[in-house]
Amino acid sequence: MAGGSENFRTERDPLGELNVPADAYYGVQTARAVENFPISGLRAPADLVAATIFVKKAAAEANAALGRLEASVARAIVSAADEILAGRLRDQFVVDVYQAGAGTSHNMNANEVLANRAAELLGEPRGTYRRVHPNDHVNMGQSTNDVFPTSTRLALLLGTGPLVAAAHGLAESLARKADEFSGVLKTGRTHLQDAVPITLGQEFGGYAACIRRGADDVAEAAEQLLELNIGATAVGTGLNAGDDYRRLVVDNLSRYTGLGLTPAINLFRVTQSMGDVLAYSGAMRRLAVELGKVASDLRLLSMGPRAGIAEIALPAVQPGSSIMPGKVNPSVPEMVNQVCFQVMGCDTTIMMACEAGQLELNVMMPVIAWNALHASTILRESMKVLRTRCVDGIAADADRARELLDRSTALATALSPHIGYAATAEIAKESVKTGRSIRELVLERGLLDAKRLDEILSVKAMTRGGIVGAGKAEESGRKEERK
């Protein structure tokens, strides 16, 4: 280290000397990255920082166990890592998300912060690197090309539990509403047109099942991320690492996190390809699609309060207009829709970046990691807010739902097995044209008697399936005909 002004210290790397803020725990390579990439102001997500520090801690312990790293240095690196994992020095991770390929700048940022803090714990001033060197000690047995993929996978896995839990929490809330609304009869809708009757509870039960299935997809996709390529080093051969080191690092990471991590079966695959992260992103996209559909439906069902459907009322969370007093908007579902669009956009970026891998490495990993972690975070938080600020407080307007149902010509569908499709279509068309009820028109034409017609037009019975109004003998006869 050369001298420097009062506010800076001068450090040297293979490109020469550069001033580094005197109080910084990062060093010259990080400072170069800050100068080179003043792009977005976005920094590494907290889980990616934590995952990277876990990797460095695991490597230090493994190298010490193998006799490659002096025990006192290893202990200092581990202590520095534990401080960062406890929340200290997070402001020292300063490299922009959009940086040089593969994440070398992020890796060196971690190496330098750990080296300087570990050296400080050993009584050395920052920036000297005599006792603890970023490359020689903190990065021992590693390459960015195995550290960054491992950290990305680990960061996503750290977020999987909370993401899946948020989805299950939302599904449970929707399921409770399904029970609450089980007796609310309403018009089903397909193509945004009136369809046969359904209960509001059945509708919400479908929403709950969709969210659960999306959550299951995320949990299943996460299993692919358990394979780690740490120890692959630069291209997958494991140069400067070795099988014992690789096994120890993965065992250490499993112990720290409680995850069932395993060394990659094929180091070259996991070093070359980010396809497992793409699969995880695809599962998040599917959950976002399911979630976005639910949010859109809540907006449709609550539209009004006078000139729309208004079968449900959403909790009022804020005034809806700066010009129309008293207006209340579906603000939370609108937010959720925007989040879902962003998750889909993140997935598109991840897909394109994963395809851009070349030969032994995908250098687009920084943008892959940031988008996947950003998608996970906003998806998780939006589902929490939708549950607590919207779904839990939804109220049904059973009278409004029944009013619209009674006006629907789709009730005529139940007549088809009894009077035929053509006659039923004529009745429905006449009802739309004249505004007269289905029941009135059927009786007028003498197609069925009143008692029989009332059985067939039982709205509640229509929501249970089968042929409404068919006696057991008649239903049995129809089954025999179908045979």
Task: Please explain how this structure is put together.
The chain has helices spanning 28-36, 46-65, 71-85, 104-121, 134-138, 144-180, 200-222, 243-257, 267-272, 275-301, 331-355, 365-389, 398-406, 416-419, 421-434, 438-444, 450-456, 459-462, 472-482; strands spanning 8-13, 16-21, 185-190, 193-199, 227-228, 262-263, 312-313, 395-396. It folds into 3 domains: 8-140, Fumarase C, Chain B, domain 1 (Orthogonal Bundle); 146-399, Fumarase/aspartase (Central domain) (Fumarase C, Chain A, domain 2), CATH 1.20.200; 408-482, Fumarase/aspartase (C-terminal domain) (Ribonucleotide Reductase Protein R1, domain 1), CATH 1.10.40.30. Helices cover 58% and strands 7% of the residues. Strand 3 (185-190) and strand 4 (193-199) form a beta hairpin. The chain has a two-stranded antiparallel sheet with strand order 1-2. Strands 3-4 form a two-stranded antiparallel ribbon. Strands 5-6 form a two-stranded parallel ribbon. It is mainly alpha-helical and 483 residues long.
